[in-house]
Amino acid sequence: MAPSPNPPSSSHNANSANANNTNDTQTSTARLQIPQPLPHPIPPPLQSTVNASLLASNTIPTLHAALVNAAQASGWLENVKRRTLELLRNGECHSYGELMARIQKEAKEGVSVTNGVNGHGAVNGAGRDVVDVKVPEAVYQEGIRVLEGCLRGMVDVVTDE
Fold first, then answer.
1. Alpha-carbon Rg of the chain, whole angstroms?
2. Taking all residues of the chain, what is their mean pLDDT, rounded to a whole number?
3. CA distances in angstroms from 102 to 80, 94, 126, 129, 133, listed in the order given
């Protein structure tokens, strides 16, 4: 089923709406039609329409604030700082690009430390606590909760029945 987003009427689009009154922008736009079950991956036209609606309704700053607060409350931001310093001090990363790639990978997958004997007879990872920077599930759940709340006001779910 193809998504059928209803674009806002030309007299009430995001360009002509009063930028100081986001409620007028939200209430004057037609609701988006979202198919259920949602296809995976989300079709690009539907994704673009949802993104445009989120931007027009000023949802992005709300979502950003919620994610930062959840990350901070979980200790994740501090863990990222500690892990970054650890990677730089240990010489495991030598450039910004290398560091970012490593932190992003560990944030998605977690840290895996293999204990084994290195070429010098010492045990790898022994006596060393590695800071885990995997994004906590609570941070994802808070982002989903806030996003669902914001979308609830602008989306109608259409089922294939």
1. 22
2. 76
3. 11, 11, 21, 17, 10
Amino acid at 111: V
Residue 160 class from Cβ within 10 Å (0-12 exposed, 13-18 middle, 19+ buried)?
exposed
The secondary structure of the chain in percent helix, strand, coil, rounded to multiples of 5, reads: 50, 5, 40
Report the helix count and the strand count for the chain, using DSSP H and E.
6, 2
Model-level pTM?
0.62
* pLDDT tens digits, 56-65: 888 899 999 9
The residue type found at 40 is H
Give the tokens for residue 68: 């930062």
- Which tokens in the block code for residue 76? 């994740």
Q: What is the identity of the amino acid at 92?
A: E
Query: pLDDT category, 158, cuts 50, 70, 90?
Result: confident
CA distances for 113 relative to 15, 106, 126, angstroms:
52, 11, 10
Nearest-angstrom CA–CA distance, 23 and 133: 38
Model confidence pLDDT, tens digit, residues 110-129: 876 554 444 444 444 445 57
